[in-house]
Amino acid sequence: MITRFNGGAGQVALNGALALPDDAYERAIVTGGVGMDSRARASRDTVLYGDEAVANAAAGDLTPRAHAAGMEIVQVGPLVPQISPRDDLAALKTLTRVLAEGRYDVVHTHSAKGGVIGRVAAARAGVPRIVHTWHGFPFNEFQSWARRGVYIRLERIAAKRTDAFLAIGSETVTTALRLGLATPERVRLSWPAVDVDAYATATGSRAQARRRLDLPLGVKVVGAIGRLTFQKGPEIFAKALARLPDDVFGLWVGGGPMADELDELTARLGIGERMRWLGHRDDVADVLPAFDLMAMPSRWEGLPCVLVEAIGAGIPLVATAVPSNQDLVLAGETGMLVRPEDPEQLATAIGALLDDPAAAARMAERARARVGDWFSPAHLGTVLDETYRGSSKRP
């Protein structure tokens, strides 16, 4: 179960489900109403199944791939990402019914909203085993103490209804244990599931990618991948680019609610000729070779799949020093870390690596050595099988 079946969390959920043995599991994806026709969602109890759910999926949604792989698809209208008390109560009621009717042996939730409502609904529906993956936490230092406290209390409520946890990144495990959200026997460290070999760059792919994107010859390219949201810090990326020389181009792959605001900012900064907002794309593996460097200006993260994808493609990294980026980006060894919300420091780090390509290449090579088999979808499938059949119990 996941609120929005896209992005890194969606990819991990899909790769894990695909890696489970077909002869041992029947699989269903329960997702939210993003993309559903507004009239269909207006009833607050609309549930779509199969082909109808796929037809109503949002742009970039992974449900078509899951459906093509033989999974049952369930789309629950009132389950939406934004906080909405009426929708949230309706989602709880509808999900409880859907899960009781589905008679599932295991419910595995992802994402903050789907994670809280989904686990409470699963417990109410009498699901025997409830598992949750933390892809990072929805509470962070950039929120007010009041809001942060509410999110922590909601997570405590859901945690009491969870038999086992997977935590993406070591800092996520540490935070969960420090806050008492999980007991040691119920939590297991996990990693983003990425087919790293699929991102390995072939000879000539760099020139090909740059021709596809119509980039001028001889420019240096800094790229980023992520939704255009406050969390990902795209405006920080743009401000950093404005501090770099005119031969440095910026590419951002991903769409989102800040698109119009970022177009205005780009014009104000005078970088319209060298900042490209590419929107959502399904060909990330083909775009990555165009990058000389990947920058991640996020304000908070779990451990994003795009880091692993860039490492697989041999792209040097600059990332913010937030949990759990340092699992892969070791300062000065496998990349460079910078302070969040600091475009000047981000620009300085980008400039240092662009000016020393030999050092950047060494860091990229060391980063690749840190990505072992435990980042593969096959390993995640083993972890899920062991977790689903485990003996840990909710309080």
Task: Indicate the topology.
Blueprint: H1 7-19, E1 28-32, H2 38-41, E2 47-49, H3 50-55, H4 63-68, E3 72-76, H5 85-102, E4 106-109, H6 112-124, E5 129-134, H7 145-159, E6 164-168, H8 170-178, E7 187-190, H9 205-212, E8 220-225, H10 234-242, E9 248-253, H11 259-269, E10 275-279, H12 284-287, E11 293-296, H13 305-312, E12 317-320, E13 336-338, H14 343-355, H15 357-370, H16 377-388
Parallel strand pairs: 1-3, 4-5, 5-6, 6-7, 8-9, 8-11, 9-10, 11-12, 12-13
Antiparallel strand pairs: 2-3
Give a summary of the structure in a few sentences.
The protein has 16 helices and 13 strands. With 395 residues, the protein is α/β, with parallel strands linked by helices.
Written description of the protein model:
With 395 residues, the protein is of the alpha/beta class. It has two domains: 7-193 and 376-388, Rossmann fold (3-Layer(aba) Sandwich), CATH 3.40.50; 196-372, Glycogen Phosphorylase B (Rossmann fold), CATH 3.40.50. Helices cover 41% and strands 15% of the residues. The chain has helices spanning 7-19, 38-41, 50-55, 63-68, 85-102, 112-124, 145-159, 170-178, 205-212, 234-242, 259-269, 284-287, 305-312, 343-355, 357-370, 377-388; strands spanning 28-32, 47-49, 72-76, 106-109, 129-134, 164-168, 187-190, 220-225, 248-253, 275-279, 293-296, 317-320, 336-338. The chain has a six-stranded parallel sheet with strand order 10-9-8-11-12-13, with helices on both faces. A four-stranded parallel sheet has the order 4-5-6-7, with helices on both faces. Helix 10 links the parallel strand 8 (220-225) and strand 9 (248-253). Helix 1 (7-19) packs across helix 16 and helix 5 packs across helix 6 (112-124). The radius of gyration is 21 Å and the shape is globular. The two termini are 22 Å apart. The model has no long low-confidence stretch (mean pLDDT 92).
